[in-house]
Amino acid sequence: MSLFPEIRLVPFSRLTQGGRWRVQAMRSYSAPQLLWITRGQGRITVGGVTGGYGAHNAVYIPAHTMHAFEVTGAVYGTAVIFSGMPDLELPETSHHLRIRDGAVQGEFTGLLESLQRELEGRRPAARRAVQHYAGLISVWLERQIAEAEEPVSATDSARRLAAGYAALVEKDFRSDKSVSDYAAALGVTPTHLTRVCKQTCGRTASDLLTERKISEARRLLADTSAPVKQIAGALGYGSPAYFTRVFHDRTGQAPLAFRQAI
């Protein structure tokens, strides 16, 4: 067990252990995280908005925020996971920052290296040092967000709607709510909601909802021994047979075949 459960540094190579689907599927974590990409490129979806990422990008994802991260063997970086630091001042919304200043890049890399040394060693006052380095990381993040602020654009309303939809899905995806139910809660039509989701992340509103359900189904199949019928019911599917069809359509495998292949 880690001596410092409140913060972890996880290399991207470890994020895919146990199956690349664990990072590429639509999911969320109970702790905030900051992704620091040092090499490679791909696409990431956070809160219903998809964008490309490259080297020296920092992506902040609040707790319980739906996201999916395309990561290949050519992508290198570190995930900073703030597991139990309620007093740490972190943003309430997601941010994707492209850090172009070499000095700023070096500053953050230095903070991560110093934090890693404290986490790995048994130096005096290490726990206090870890807390201070975590605080400096939060200050670095806050400053980069402030410098990156841009004027409000015409796409902001679409992004806000997509983020609102993603937040509702994350809250209620285990229910039997449909896209129409979510659209009604947001005060828009299902057609408009789908149009906006296609604009912001290239997926329909139905795709986002189904991907989140199937991601959780994969986790439950991999990490628990719950029967398929129980998993189907827990995710709002009235029929296990229908759940099996949807799961197969999305993954290319039946639920039990997926479990046996883990």
UniProtKB/TrEMBL annotation:
A Gene Ontology molecular function term of the record: DNA-binding transcription factor activity
Domain of life: Bacteria
Record has DNA-binding as a keyword: yes
UniProt keywords, alphabetically: DNA-binding, Transcription, Transcription regulation
InterPro entries: Homeodomain-like_sf, HTH_AraC, RmlC-like_jellyroll, RmlC_Cupin_sf
Pfam families: HTH_18
Transport found in the keyword field: no
Chain ranges of the HTH araC/xylS-type domain: 163-261
Name of the protein in its database record: AraC-like DNA-binding protein
